[in-house]
Amino acid sequence: MKNTFKTLLALGVVGVLHTQPVVADHHMPSGFGGTELYGCEMNEGKAPADLMSVVGEWNNWSDEKEMNDYYAWVLTPVFGSDINFERTAFWFGFTPDFKAMGKTLDAWFTEGAELNAKFNEVWTCSAHMEFASLIVRGGGGESSSGYASFSDCTFREGMEMEDLMAAQAKYNAYLDEQEVPSVTVYHLPGHGNPQDAGYQMKISNWVSDLSTYGENSEKYVNQGGWKVQQDTIGSVVSCDSPRMYTATLVRSGD
Predict the structure, then answer these.
(1) Which domain, by its residues, includes 92?
(2) What is the pLDDT of residues 15-29, one digit of tens each?
(3) What is the pTM of this model?
């Protein structure tokens, strides 16, 4: 794949998606995983079906290379602005640790040229970025497709990660009481992020379907959830307006 700077900023974040709980010890993080993101636009005359055809070949290749710890999704916009809804698409991959990501990248850049050319016939990508991603809510379930909202965030003066983790624990307790099914992931920028990005981290929230999103929103907007969020997470970080995307699972590790 080639490396969309503007398109990637519209996405705002990449993360790992599990639509059911993904951390077994009651929402406590198990460690950072490696994430890569390509921001792309479909080439003229190409459609998602063309992309999925190449993805099928890539999956076979990945099986041959024993990429058993690599998960991948294709994202397309649902809510956003200044974005081409018909042609914008994103690829992101996740591995549970950085060693597995290094192995995956090594195989791709040394042996994936032929497949890379096929991807480039379908879409043009102008950004490739990495993140360290930490699941802070959710855990234990199978990876799947779903919907995700992303925000760019900065720490308020005097606040740091330790404060955010404490606030997240309090907010998680409230979400548990309200029986809100969702996954939350923190993303710390690595290579490829724009030098003038204006964010210190990204936060993503994932749900399995839009009906669940609607139920969660009802509790947040009309039943006081916004106030709890403001008093916990919002007291530590300031985040911009979220964007929502579909997330289609195209590889689920082993």
Answers:
(1) 5-149+182-193+202-208+242-252
(2) 333 333 333 333 344
(3) 0.84
